[in-house]
Write a structure and sequence with these properties.
The chain is mainly α. 70% of the residues lie in helices and 0% in strands.
Length: 311
């Protein structure tokens, strides 16, 4: 259906297309109208309609909001949430036994604040003001990562679930502007990696697509591994490095890379064994697995030991 519509529109005169777009805009509510205009027509007009076209005032608003978050001014305890439930238009039995707070948090002051400020940051980027848009986005994401570290700030450590924004669009724009804003390659890749650390679900593909300098990226990722004492994170970093080598069509020596990291964490023997198995060096893989089993902590689960042995 969309292909036939596309073909039909492609044959129309520009004036008729304008009429169609205006008719479509007329059916939208104010929020949809402003977002559509910002994304497809003129983001500066949208910022003006929202009375948000003062860059300095906008950045001040972002900083004030983030400071309020860090000062726990939006924190909600159980009593406040219970009070909201008791005053709700819904009967209390509407909520499950563990109290579904999603409605409460979705309409909270902090969720609305993040949603609106992220929305404006995206519009600034769409308007061509990379500096203001990127700086606002960076400050908000930094604040958000701290909010995700503990419930002590907002009452939940999953704030992203309640913020109304297209995260895929936001991180795509953020990575695009990041590499325009930071002109020094090492600084840009460092910032890109830090963003990936906090928001890997949305950033892995963008990191792999944007990073071109394997030497700098490898140093930054390995530094991240060596500064950590959490195997799950170290494993994710090592996989990211391998993915980047693959994307750049470079040969990744998994065995050598992992061997260099076994002094930092013995669990990297897992990747050594895996790499040897991929090379079909079965005997050496078995010997390495036995060495690994002697070195890993005694309290390590049997399932983890089995993963190292199986490679």
């Amino acid at each position: 259906m969309f292909e036939s519509i596309k073909r039909k529109l492609s044959t129309m005169e520009p004036a008729r297309l304008v009429e169609i777009v205006l008719a479509a805009l007329d059916t939208m509510d104010e929020s949809e109208f402003i977002n559509f205009v910002a994304k497809h027509i003129n983001a500066k007009e949208s910022l003006a309609l929202l009375d948000a076209d003062d860059p300095e005032a906008f950045l001040d608003a972002v900083e004030t909001f983030c400071q309020n978050c860090l000062n726990k001014e939006y924190y909600t305890d159980d009593e406040e949430v219970e009070e909201y439930f008791s005053n709700s238009e819904y009967e209390y039995y509407y909520y499950d036994d563990e109290r579904d707070y999603s409605e409460y948090y979705h309409y909270s002051q902090w969720a609305k604040g993040f949603s609106e400020l992220f929305r404006l940051a995206v519009m600034y980027i769409q308007s061509g003001d990379i500096k203001v848009g990127y700086e606002a986005n960076s400050r908000l994401l930094s604040c958000l990562s701290i909010m995700m570290s503990s419930e002590i700030y907002l009452g939940t450590d999953e704030p992203m679930s309640y913020i109304s924004i297209d995260w895929n669009e936001l991180f795509e724009l953020h990575y695009d502007t990041l590499f325009q804003y930071h002109t020094q390659t090492d600084q840009a890749i460092e910032k890109a990696f830090r963003c990936w650390v906090n928001f890997s679900e949305f950033c892995t593909e963008r990191f792999l697509h944007k990073v071109e300098d394997i030497t700098i990226a490898e140093r930054i990722i390995l530094d991240g591994i060596k500064s950590s004492h959490a195997w799950e994170f170290e494993c994710r970093c090592f996989n990211l490095l391998e993915q980047l080598y693959t994307r750049l069509d470079l040969g990744f020596d998994k065995v050598t890379q992992a061997e260099l990291l076994t002094e930092h964490d013995v669990f990297f023997y897992f990747f050594v064994v895996e790499g040897l198995s991929e090379r079909a060096e079965w005997r050496l893989a078995a010997q390495t697995a036995r060495i690994a089993l002697e070195k890993i902590p005694a309290q390590t689960s049997d399932s983890t030991k089995m993963r190292i042995v199986s490679g």
